[in-house]
Amino acid sequence: MNQVATDYDEVRSDVKESQDNSLEALQSANAPDARSVVRELDEADALDDAVTPGGEFVAEELVVQVVPQAQDEFTCYSCFLVRHRSQIAREKDGHAYCTECEG
Length: 103
Ligand SMILES: [Zn+2]
Prior knowledge:
This protein is α+β, with helices and mostly antiparallel strands. The protein contains two helices and four strands. The structure holds zinc ion. The site of zinc ion has 8 residues, from strand 4 and helix 2.
């Protein structure tokens, strides 16, 4: 009886140990891949952060500033929208401000 119980425990501990070993092997085998994937994602995110917000903002500002404006229009110096001169609420230092911004 004792002999059987001991053998049973040994078998179980062997199985458990081999399961632990294979789990460790899996984890150590997976770890480098997981880390490199995370690093690639971080680099992609950093690239997006560097390009998207700044690039779009600068491009948008340039487009607004080169919009051709007619004689009876002005570009509000606050919201940078082209508006009819009747909407000028204030002019200061050569810059006009629309009624919505000054309103
Ligand atoms: Zn405005």
